[in-house]
Amino acid sequence: MRLENVEEPSEPVSRGLLQSEGDAQPSEHDFYGLYDELEQLAESLPKSLPRRQAILAALEDCENLSQLRVVEQDLRGLLDRRKKALLEQPFLGMNFGAEQDKVSIEIIGEATKGIDSIIREIESRNFAMIGDGSTCQVYVNRQHPRLCFKVIDKMDGYKKANTVRTEKDMQTFLWADEASRDMIAEPYYYIMSDSAHMFVMERLDAVTLSQVMDAGTPMPDSFDINVFFKRLTWFIDHMHELGIHHRDLNASNIMVDTVTGLPKVIDFGKSIDMTGNGSGDPYIIPELGQVHMRDDLSILRLRKRVEEYLAKKHNN
């Protein structure tokens, strides 16, 4: 950051809108005070947002208050647009949401008051279940087909699983890593109450390996088993390098993209971030009596089953 042409004002200068010509000259205090404020606002933006880095770079290049005001206008406009988009999404007939890296307490508070009615509405004709697990169900809404809604209403399952807040944090962390983005769904929002939790994320154009091999869903024509498992192996290794261990990789949590035939990994509900957690075994939960979780690399043994499925399909 460079600063030039700063003179002491004869009267105090406000830090709101850009003052007109003839007003008091800005002080060094005004410049640095506003700079710090804007830097904090920019840092609060999701790391995955392309404009975030551009705004931070523009801040660094500012040499005077006038240039800083231009960046301020751009940043505050971006924040206003994001807030409007977040608050006005008509999910399930009500407004709720959270910024990618920061929960809006007011909105979440309002949402939790109505979560039971939201879950009841899921049973209406506007929703369809696309997944059913031991502790949760996954739904799509016909009015918002690009979203899926993961609802957890069996709270005792959290003995070995994350809250939706932790699960979203895991996916947000991976989504911020550009190399991982093609492998997962984009996380959006979560809401929590004493009786149920909900996590809203991108709906992938993909089918699970379980759907293909157990339920007769067609395997995408673009599927190549060598490319698929090479990519999956890379992602597992890459997650581990980032400190993330999935701990529940199985045929129901590995998807095949219907267009590219490449793998997608879902359900980070049992994942753990080992960063800063020492060198312990990520697959053991000592507080639950040394409970063992599923080793991520065990999923690679699924390749043989996929090969047998493809061979049988080809022979038929």
Tell me the fraction of residues in β-strands, as a range: 15-25%
**Secondary-structure element string:** HHHHHEEEHEEEHHEEEEEEH
Helix content: 25-40%
Shape: elongated
Structural class: alpha+beta
Note the total helix count. 9
Distance between the termini: 68 Å
Largest sheet: 5 strands, antiparallel
CATH superfamily of the largest domain: Transferase(Phosphotransferase) domain 1
CA radius of gyration is 24 Å
Please report the total strand number as a whole number.
12
CATH class of the largest domain: Mainly Alpha
Average per-residue pLDDT, rounded, comes to 76
CATH topology of the largest domain: Transferase(Phosphotransferase), domain 1
Per CATH, the architecture of the largest domain is Orthogonal Bundle
Strand order of the largest sheet: 1-2-3-5-4
Unreliable spans are 1-24, 86-113
Domain module tally: 3
Task: Describe the protein in words.
This protein has three domains: 1-88, no CATH class; 90-200, Phosphorylase Kinase, domain 1 (2-Layer Sandwich); 204-316, Orthogonal Bundle (Transferase(Phosphotransferase), domain 1), CATH 1.10.510. Helix content is 38%, strand content 16%. It has helices spanning 28-43, 50-61, 65-87, 105-113, 115-122, 164-176, 209-215, 225-241, 302-315; strands at 127-132, 136-141, 144-152, 187-192, 197-202, 206-208, 244-245, 254-257, 263-265, 272-273, 284-285, 291-292. The strands form four sheets. It has a five-stranded antiparallel sheet with strand order 1-2-3-5-4, sandwiched between helices. It has a three-stranded antiparallel sheet with strand order 6-8-9. Strands 7-10 form a two-stranded antiparallel sheet. Helix 1 (28-43) runs parallel beside helix 3 (65-87).
